[in-house]
Design a protein that fits this description.
4 helices; paralog of FGE (formylglycine-generating enzyme); four-stranded antiparallel β-sheet; alpha+beta; single chain; globular
């Protein structure tokens, strides 16, 4: 089942809105994907969840993770374009819509399955093993080494981190301030798919070492904020979810590199 949620496409786009761009706006080669940069997240323990957030963020619990690398920003249109050119997925619904098609905007409207497929393809054209982050990995990275701050940067969002006023689409990645681990746009712009199935009660029985979520479910976990929301950022502990086949105009993803730096 696939659901599409977001702004209506501009009149006149028609079928072209579902096809990859071919006019040279994006560099259609694996080189664009190789330009994806990551930040190193050290091995260690952290307190996951929040006692003052929504019920699904409780109880707070200690989690230990191995080291990994996470994309510094959500995957962009430019980085996603060669994956489409390789014929590995259909173009998202808003691919050619004016408010969504800048090379440095995050790609949106991607299903969980397509995000996972992109990570697998990335391993084919670059070195290393790639996948989506688990909720625990995403939250540890988003916290940037801060124990229990309200945002990825501390007690408050940095001035100008999320734009004010009406928006027709997501703003470009990488325009804000990095968190303590060097990640950008953490908890803003788009919801980001995670590897896990979602269960609102999972924290009550979560393993303490490298939790990977429940064995099955109906919705996949996601994290982050949204350009479409009135409040455009979310705390590092905030959880969200969506059926994996759905396409939303504020859903993107970032990728995780396992082991040595990819």
């Amino acid at each position: 089942m696939t659901a599409v949620m977001g702004p209506t496409l501009r009149p006149g786009l028609g079928r072209a809105a579902l096809e990859p761009m071919t006019g040279g706006a994006f560099p259609f080669s694996a080189a664009a994907a190789r330009e994806l940069t990551t930040s190193a997240i050290p091995a260690g323990s952290f307190l996951m969840g929040s006692a003052i957030g929504r019920p699904d963020e409780s109880p707070p619990h200690t989690v230990r993770l191995d080291a990994f690398h996470l994309g510094r920003t959500p995957v962009t249109n430019a980085q996603y374009a060669p994956f489409l050119e390789a014929g590995r997925a259909p173009a998202p619904p808003w691919w050619r819509a004016e408010a969504f098609s800048a090379p440095d905007q995050p790609v949106v409207g991607v299903t969980w399955f397509e995000a996972l497929a992109y990570a697998g393809w990335l391993g084919e054209v670059t070195s290393g093993s790639w996948r989506l982050p688990t909720e625990a990995e995403w939250e540890r990275a988003a916290r940037g080494g801060l124990a229990s701050a309200a945002t990825a940067w501390g007690d408050a969002l940095p001035p100008g981190e999320a734009p004010d006023g009406p928006l027709a689409g997501p703003w470009p990645v990488g325009r804000g301030r990095p968190n303590g681990y060097g990640l950008l746009d953490t908890g803003t712009i788009v919801h980001e798919w995670c590897l896990d199935w979602y269960d609102a009660r999972y924290y009550a029985s979560s393993p303490t070492v490298a939790p990977k979520g429940p064995d099955d479910g109906e919705r996949r976990s996601s994290r982050g904020g949204s350009w479409r929301h009135h409040v455009r950022w979310s705390p590092p502990s905030a959880r969200s979810s969506l059926p994996p086949g759905f396409r939303y105009a504020d859903y993107g993803f970032r990728v995780l590199g396992e082991g040595a730096r990819p």
